[in-house]
Design a protein that fits this description.
By secondary structure, this protein is α+β, with helices and mostly antiparallel strands. The chain is 42% helix and 20% strand. Strands 1, 2, 3, 4, 5, 6, 7, 8, 9 and 10 form a 10-stranded mixed sheet that branches.
């Protein structure tokens, strides 16, 4: 009986998925889908998330944007038509949603066919606090990056560390460096166990071609590119250390790559002072040969 019930709901969800994937332009919502497929409106959310591991809304949004990326890359349709086909009547809203998900605008993706989007999340923490890992890093060749940066020395993650970040972002805001989708990242040079927590060095960076006069600890330089394995994490920053443990304790030991003598880069894809920390996307760039 239990198996029959499980199979019943799994089939219902498969039917819902097939409908969603073929009708992305429609006004898809829980009430409509639950009525159409004969599932209790009050329990549909829980059943869907239990089977799929993500909410209905997250799945619909992901499918729409991933479909948009395919249409942009493999068709010649105008962006306005692409937006309509996946359920966005407002091109501005579509552009913002696409940029939030992928870190660049639809027009930037359309204009540069060399760009490969990273839609996979390697590591996340679910609602119950359980770690969920599906480690499949993307291997990329990162170009040289001109940056405005602030050098920091001290304990990573400390109050002093946070204040330095606030000072840096305040300077960036005052000088118009952030925009609405800034390229923000940190470069970490040390392990606390090697040099002591008080001697750790990092650079807080914003990639920009703008020229800014040096101001105290803030200056400009070009960071050398190279080959990296990129791991994508969704969740609050306080749990990032668990991803590092998985990378070095599992992936590095069981992969056939060799680490390159260069610092780690931590990129913040959708950082926001007002955003939900559980939705923050962070990419860890591990230098490899």
């Amino acid at each position: 009986m239990q198996q029959e019930t499980t199979t019943y709901y799994q089939q219902k969800v498969r039917d819902v998925l097939n409908y969603i994937n073929g009708n992305l332009a429609e006004n898809l919502n829980v009430k409509f889908l639950s009525e159409k497929f004969g599932i209790s409106y009050f329990h549909f959310h829980r059943i869907f998330k239990a089977i799929m591991g993500e909410t209905l809304g997250c799945y619909i949004n992901r499918m729409r944007l991933e479909t948009a990326a395919k249409l942009i890359r493999y068709s010649n349709e105008p962006l306005s038509d692409v937006a309509q086909k996946i359920g966005y009547n407002d091109c501005s809203a579509f552009s913002k949603a696409f940029s939030k998900e992928f870190g660049l605008s639809p027009q930037e993706f359309k204009s540069n066919r060399a760009i490969v989007l990273n839609t996979h999340v390697d590591y996340t923490i679910n609602d119950s606090g359980k770690l969920v890992a599906d480690i499949k890093p993307k291997i990329i060749q990162l170009p040289d990056k001109p940056v405005i940066y602030m050098n920091f020395k001290g304990e990573y993650g400390s109050e002093e560390f946070s204040r330095a970040w606030d000072d840096f972002l305040g300077f960036a805001t005052q000088n118009g460096l952030l925009g609405w989708k800034p390229d923000i990242f940190s470069v970490y040079y040390d392990l606390p166990s090697d040099v002591g927590i008080e001697n750790c060095i990092a650079d807080f960076c914003i990639s920009t071609p703008k020229q800014v006069a040096p101001n105290g600890r803030i200056s400009s330089k070009t960071i050398s590119g190279g080959k990296y394995a990129v791991f994508r994490y969704k969740g609050s920053y306080e749990n990032l250390w668990k991803l590092y443990e998985t990378i070095f304790g599992v992936w590095v030991l069981h992969s056939d790559v060799r680490l390159r003598d260069a610092p780690i880069i931590e990129k913040y894809r959708n950082y926001s002072l007002t955003g939900n920390p559980n939705n923050f996307l962070t990419e860890i760039y591990i230098p490899i040969e």
